[in-house]
Request: fold
Amino acid sequence: MSIFPPKERVWWNEPIEKSEVLWVTLALVWALVMFFMMPYWHMTGNQNLSNEAYKIRPEVFAERTEAFAAKYTVREQGETGIPVVRPPAGSDVYMLGRMWEWWPVLELEKGQSYRLHLSSVDWQHGFSLQPENINLQIIPGYEMILTVTPTSSGEFSVVCNEFCGIGHHTMVGKIHVIEK
Amino acid sequence: MSDHKSTQGEGPVPLMQQLLDSPFLLLIIGVGMPTVIYIIWGIMEIVAIPVAP
Amino acid sequence: MAQFRTCPDTGFAIDLNADKLIKWNAVTAVVFLLVGGLFGLAVALTRWPAVHLLGADDFYLALTAHGFDVLLVWCIYFEMALLYFTSSILLKSRLALPKIAWAQYILMLVGAIMTNVAVLRGDSSVMFTSYVPMMAAPDFYLGIILFAVGALLGCVVFFATLYIAKRDNTYEGSMPLVTFGAMTAAIIAVFTILSGAVILVPTLFWSMGFIGSIDGLMYRVVWWAMGHSSQQVNVAAQIACWYAIAAILFNASPLSEKVSRTAFLFYILFLQLASAHHLLVDPGLSSEWKIFNTSYAMYLAVLGSMIHGLTVPGAVEAAQRKRGFNKGLFEWLRKAPWGNPVFSGFALSLVLFGFLGGITGVMMGTEQLNIITHNTMYTPGHFHGTVVVGTTLAFMAMSYWLVPTLWQKELMFPGLAKWQPYLFGLGMGLASVFMMGAGTLGVPRRHWDISFADAAMVHEFPAAAYMMMGLNGIAALIGGVGGAIFILNMVGTVFFGKAKQPKAAAAEVPNIGGAATTYGSAGTMAVPGTFVLALVFLTAFVLYYFVNWKYLSDVWGLS
Reply:
């Protein structure tokens, strides 16, 4: 019984029932398949994070984002006062999280790639692109860079999904993707 | 069957069983492994992140 | 000199110190389950859009308290009881260092109350994870630190008891498998607590103003070595309970000591690495680090879990077949005591943990697949599948045996107890499924208002997402009733239960020891029924895993 010591002093050499051996073998094979799926997807898949990142002071990131927005602003998002920024295809794009907005609003072209820089200037935030359901952790002091290629067009929301204080549930940003 | 059983528990204790019968050795391994592979390696990665140009 | 009493049900010699400590720890655990459960219910009812019970302030406060009280306090208090039970009682030894053990109890209590007070005061609604640079009051961190120090003392007592039991030859040969499982939990607990100290002590000083800042990424890496590993303690403890229940109800022996203990060894070596599950979409950590850690070193800890998933029910099947339930593949299962909450709780815990907690955890812990689940409702969906319908249900099942046995009292409401595991398992199992469903639709976790009523810009979630959150609320209510019945039964039994009549059942015990001893001999212990069930599990696992790769392949290109 499992609540008593093993009957035999030496139990390591006891034979193992064959269905147990078979199951351990199957499980091991499956474990290896799952393990190698990850490097395999790095080689063949289209959804991988670059892990390119830099340490950055929040005020420096804010300056760069403001300079970026000043350069490419095309209009305002409705009545919100938040600029809509339309960067050229293939360029560096900035979005910052702060209590409680994602700034600025971006307008991207479908099928084009952009180097997206993300960071926070205050607390940790969660970048959650909806309805695509792409989710990233945004940490102040770190600039995360990834290349995004929108494959669908329309209006997308960036919801914050890391708790960031009492206004957390009002923190929504937008990314517009237009067809060329 | 009973024959089989009586010889089974004899002889020297195999090395792997000795390991599994040593709580303090397992404790050291169980704390050491994740400390090295997860924490120390992880902190080295963070330290190695370059400062933004 | 330690004093002992003899348990009339089991014949075990019980150290009176251990007896008292197990009782106090277990009762305190149940009290915090009640507190944490009520907060949880308030959270679920707030996230039910049509009910939206609490205001934003209270919601974030309740969510912080819910996480701390059930994830940490309930589980670890119960585990302390298990550690003392599996060391002192199962090894027939006195409990080492009883004064230290009492210090464990008191420190954990002081810590738990201190942190609860800080949260209830309203200035420490930082969530259980308390990510910096969001700051809580110093006593929030201090309470967790005291609680952890207490838990560490409990581990010291456990290992010291293992040591004196071996030295005094209170048992022969190797320790019982159940004790080995508890030892696995204790080893992981030591790593958990040390990691917690490494990060929370500086964070405490920071909140007191002695340290300028704490790096956000560094915090996450080290905090999760505690936060995730504490749940791995639960997994190991819960599996030790599974083996214990199989032995208690069916006199089941492990199919193979070697295989089961090796599976626990995989836990000792690799389970804690899974702390990386939380950092897969964090900036700056390399894919090499992420892949190696998130896969518990090539999924060897998952292999361990899959082994337990076969050997626990396999041991039951073997024992049942020995009793003559040999017809077909599943007679052993049909003739199991489904009306006994010890069994039904155990069986549901095993199945639900595997399907709801296990498969989903491995899926979302895959480096790239985490992109489509991180911080969505999928995450709490997954861990309600592990820690609630897995661990909590296993601990409930264990309590249905442990409490009447230790207190020598009849269960207060045996009729209700019959239904309790089904209500709780079904309710919380469904809650887990609905949360995961909502997460798949993108609903964020830890969010007061997914209609964004006060926001400058609005995102409209699909109607199905609202429905999922509503169904989650209903399921949580059902589970809550199940939880309430459990607590009522335990408290009622302890304080008002009728004393057990001494019965002739004690004669059963020695008989038991001889009934199923020929484990480990090939050919005699075939478990075809369990094997078929295991294949069903593996098929579901493979399908679900690849379906999610398909989902991922449909989202925007990222590189």
Notes: The two ends of chain C are 67 Å apart (CA to CA).
